[in-house]
Amino acid sequence: MLGFIIDPASFRGPVPARRVGNGRSIAMNTPYEKLKLLPGAGRFLKSGLSFATLDIYVLAMTGNQAAEQFNRERDKRFQRIRNKAA
Q1: What is the pLDDT of residues 46-59, one digit of tens each?
Q2: Whole-number Å distance between alpha carbons of 9 and 23
Q3: Which of 33, 64, 67, 84 could be 29's S-S partner, Cβ–Cβ 3.0 to 4.6 Å?
Q4: Domain range summary for the chain, segments of one domain joined by +
């Protein structure tokens, strides 16, 4: 079981399109949201994994929090590489 609970009512829907300078609109979906929109996208997931499970992880933190976590993990990995090389 995951260590947190998400209220299903708080799930975000697709991000609306945004207008750019010349009046065109562009979709502001993340790669994850774009993957979910593909027909049969579940076949691209590892066995035993579902979008419902991933949604809980995705909605547990903001984009900035996810970027900070990514950067911390990246720094740890490069530190291990540097330590092996020394």
Answers
A1: 888 899 998 888 88
A2: 33
A3: 33
A4: 8-85
Question: Which run of H or E residues covers position 28?
Answer: none
The answer to whether the beta carbons of residues 32 and 58 sit under 8 Å apart is yes
Q: Which amino acid is at 39?
A: P
Query: Any idea which residue has 């994850």 for tokens?
Result: 32
Q: Kindly tell me the sign of the dihedral angle through the C-alpha atoms of 41, 35, 69, 86.
A: positive
Q: Considering only residues 71 and 20, tell me which one the structure prediction assigns the higher pLDDT.
A: 71
Query: Can you tell me the distance from the alpha carbon of 56 to that of 69, in angstroms, rounded to the nearest whole number?
Result: 16
Whether 34 and 28 have beta carbons less than 8 Å apart is answered as no
Q: Can you read off the two tokens belonging to residue 46? A: 């590892």
What is the C-alpha separation between 27 and 40, in angstroms, rounded? Answer: 21
d(CA 66, CA 49): 20
